[in-house]
């Protein structure tokens, strides 16, 4: 019993240390929109951001300082800490929405119908780089709120804990465990602190380049800043009600497609490209699958829209719309140029499958991740070959240029299959909940699409996520976004910990 209590105290101390540091960083992140408030004279929004930042800072310090020496985090602490942080941080991020809704001038009073749940939904969507929105109008939101939405996606796309490691972490304090807690394992430098700093250098350079590109093509500067941040984060928040479709500009669409694809590629590949190894863009196994799926998916979607959809008989329109929407779905970018409610159920299902797949592991994308799908398909192929080959014949297991041992093959295929299975189970739970809450008038294909978008952290929408939606459905989509961002395991680890801590006496007897 005593040993259990010691373990419990140590674990709670480490978690308090992690959550406290992240909340301190979240407070700093929330101060950035104050610059926008001053530039555009939106002084009515300042109290909301100060309140959110102040409360986040206060709780963060209260959690951190009593446990500042509890820094020996392990993998379970990293996962549980990530799960808790991605629940708590949006609570403080929702405060500006809730407070500005009460103080915004009546001429722009489109936030005034936003409930506490709506505010949390909007905050969770931003931090998880999803992009689903329940705001009545995105165009008429105050500039400070528009920036807050895009800025949160920019930070959340890479990861709030990853950013915390850049600013507040010290070498040798469980940095890798915290890094892995957000579902990352790739290393760009020998030390994790060096890795996350290199990731942010790459990310900032791409963001600046994206802003310059969009502005050079004729997009207004304000729009360019917001769209570049959200596109690279594969987020999807826009400053336009009709997203990128508001512009009707093919050049903008091509640029946004490029930015979303950059966000869908692993930081490892980007790092190698920055070091002069350009061929990695085509040699990387995940990129090969990413580009192949783009070609195949665009072709199938174009045929569907040409023969059955709103672009029936118009090849150019079908190809243009298919290209943007499919890349946005596969890269989980969330931007759209078409009203997806008018698309056929088959087209929606095809896009849903793209959102489930997602981009490369180690990128800013959501979804199951391509590397897991690759391992499942290769595992099935290897099993098929072994079945039809002579007894004792050896089937080489290769992933790209890497040859896997039998033990490695079993481990990675089992891990990929298990995580994918759990991902799909939760997806079906979300579909069932929404089918019973959104009403019989909503087609099943629309419900499936919206849940895939939420759990894939995508942001494409057929209109289910909106102001005034059913609160149970809205809560379920929040859970889907949260679990999708964490890739299942941290959530299961957190739930398991509740069971562990709730039954100390039984655990003690077992020991």
Structural account:
The structure is a single chain. Helix 10 packs antiparallel against helix 12 (250-264). The radius of gyration is 23 Å and the shape is globular. It is 66% helix and 1% strand. It has a two-stranded antiparallel ribbon. The protein has two domains: 2-272, no CATH class; 370-510, no CATH class. With 511 residues, the protein is mainly α.
Task: Produce the secondary structure layout.
Layout: H1 2-29, H2 33-39, H3 46-64, H4 75-93, H5 95-103, H6 116-127, H7 143-158, H8 160-167, H9 175-181, H10 192-216, H11 221-232, H12 250-264, H13 267-274, H14 280-283, H15 285-307, H16 315-330, H17 345-357, H18 370-388, E1 398-399, E2 402-403, H19 406-435, H20 444-455, H21 471-486, H22 489-502, H23 504-510
Antiparallel strand pairs: 1-2
Helix pairs in contact: 1-3, 1-4, 1-8, 2-7, 3-5, 4-6, 4-9, 4-22, 5-6, 6-7, 6-21, 7-11, 8-10, 10-11, 10-12, 11-12, 12-16, 15-16, 15-17, 16-17, 17-20, 18-19, 19-20, 19-21, 20-21
């Amino acid at each position: 019993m005593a040993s259990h209590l010691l373990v419990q105290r140590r674990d709670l101390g480490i978690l308090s240390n992690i959550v406290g540091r992240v909340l301190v960083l979240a407070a700093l992140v929330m101060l950035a929109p104050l610059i926008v408030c001053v530039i555009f004279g939106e002084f009515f929004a300042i109290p909301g951001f100060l309140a959110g930042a102040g409360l986040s800072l206060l709780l963060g310090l209260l959690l951190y300082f009593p446990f500042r020496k509890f820094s020996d985090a392990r993998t379970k602490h990293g996962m549980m800490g990530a799960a808790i942080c991605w629940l708590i941080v949006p609570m403080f991020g929702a405060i500006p929405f809730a407070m500005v809704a009460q103080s915004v001038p009546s001429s722009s009073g489109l936030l005034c119908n936003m409930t506490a749940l709506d505010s949390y939904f909007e905050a969770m969507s931003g931090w998880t780089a999803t992009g689903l929105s329940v705001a009545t109008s995105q165009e008429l939101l105050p500039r400070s709120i528009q920036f807050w939405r895009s800025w949160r996606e920019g930070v959340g796309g890479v990861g709030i804990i990853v950013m915390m490691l850049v600013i507040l972490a010290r070498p040798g304090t469980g940095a890798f465990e915290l890094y892995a807690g957000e579902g990352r394992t790739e290393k760009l430098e020998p030390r994790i602190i060096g890795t996350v700093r290199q990731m942010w250098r790459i990310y900032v350079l791409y963001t600046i380049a994206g802003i310059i590109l969009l502005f050079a093509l004729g997009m207004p500067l304000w729009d360019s800043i917001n769209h570049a941040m959200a596109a690279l984060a594969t987020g999807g928040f826009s400053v336009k009600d009709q997203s990128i479709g508001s512009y009707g500009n093919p050049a903008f669409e091509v640029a946004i497609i490029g930015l979303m694809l950059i966000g869908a590629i692993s930081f490892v590949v980007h790092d190698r490209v920055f070091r002069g190894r350009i061929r990695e863009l085509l040699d990387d196994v995940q990129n090969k699958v990413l580009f192949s799926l783009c070609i195949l998916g665009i072709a199938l979607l174009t045929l569907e829209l040409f023969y059955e959809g709103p672009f029936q008989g118009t090849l150019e329109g079908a190809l243009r719309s298919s290209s943007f929407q499919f890349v946005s779905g596969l890269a989980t970018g969330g931007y759209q140029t078409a009203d997806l409610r008018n698309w056929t159920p088959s087209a929606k299902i095809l896009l849903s499958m793209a959102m489930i797949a997602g981009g490369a592991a180690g990128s800013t994308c959501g979804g199951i991740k391509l590397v897991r799908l690759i391992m499942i398909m290769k595992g099935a192929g290897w099993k098929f070959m072994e079945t039809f080959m002579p007894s004792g014949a050896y089937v080489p297991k290769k992933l790209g240029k890497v040859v896997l041992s039998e033990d490695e093959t079993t481990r990675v295929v089992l891990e990929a299959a298990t995580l994918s299975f759990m991902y799909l189970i939760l997806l079906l739970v979300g579909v069932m909940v929404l089918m019973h809450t959104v009403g019989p008038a909503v087609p099943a294909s629309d419900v499936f699409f919206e849940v895939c978008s939420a759990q894939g952290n995508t942001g494409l929408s057929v209109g289910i996520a909106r102001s005034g939606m059913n609160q149970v459905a809205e809560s379920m989509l929040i859970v889907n976004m949260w679990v999708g961002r964490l890739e299942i395991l941290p959530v299961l680890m957190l739930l398991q910990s509740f069971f562990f801590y709730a039954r100390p006496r039984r655990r003690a007897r077992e020991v």
